[in-house]
Amino acid sequence: xxxxxxxxKDVAEAMDVSIVTVxxxxxxxxxxxxxxxxxxxxxxxxxGYIAKGDRSRREDxxxxxxxxxxxxxVSDNSFYFKIYQQMxxxxxxxxxxxxxxxxxxxxxxxxxxxxxVRMNSVAQxxxxxxxxxxxxxxxxxxxxxxxxxxxxxxxxxxxCVVSDGVNGGFLLTRYLVKNGHKRIGFVGNxxxxxxxxxxxxxxxxxxxAKEQIYDAKWTLPDRDEDGKFIELExxxxxPDAFVxxxxxxxxxxIDALEKAGYSVPEDISVVGxxxxxxxxxxxxxxxxxxxxxxxMIDRCIHIIEERAKNKNYRRGxxxxxxxxxxxxxxxxxx
Length: 334
Description:
The protein is of the alpha/beta class and 334 residues long. The chain has 14 helices and twelve strands. Helix 13 (247-259) links the parallel strand 8 (241-244) and strand 9. The termini are far apart.
């Protein structure tokens, strides 16, 4: 059965306003209050209305891919913005157009749909970095093709592409133990995101499996509940090494240790995660776990391509493995 095309009349009847009012609101013309305009745009999107000019470009819209990132990730960490830039180039090679929207904190907390979705500007959406469930729920309910990038959320049956955080945390911890470290801490608020939790679980997995020493005082928060970085507070009883949940935090940890009179790696070893930031020239080169972002983006675009052919395509969760990169921030304890 062919689905009936939604018209301006349908939107007008649903809003109990005139067709002229709907026309002005959707065209951005004067004569309609901002509040009413927003309600009409929302209702039009909800009903699936596509403007006449857009209908002639319906197939063109299939190449528009929304890339959505929370402002808290862009302001505190350039990792996801670099992901966007790389994703944009790879989408272009495949004939797609990537459209970025940075979501304000208040919009994420209230579940406000991104403008690119409300205005029917994209066929699919990639959400880069974990976002609040109320926001994810709003997007999933639109019926658009959604892909979670670098995070999972068990509340939603959505395709995900993630790095192997548990294995990464495991390998970093194993490397430290194999170099003689027996007292190892973790830097990161594992309640903040599932990605950090996975890395923390990998760290704990190795300690438990090998019956290594664990002290809760050696797990240091790096950010608050809103995801903003906080000052790192060193414990009185210091461990031999720290596994940090990402490279920027590892460099912050190195700075905090040096200000407290410690040398890295002579006194304390430090390892990071991601290997996606440039090594600061004034800093020691960081031992870290390298996320295979190229492969993650390739897998993400493959899902987009398959879903464009078949809207019912499902891939599930794709885990992409990385590798340990050994540099200068770990010493060997004999």
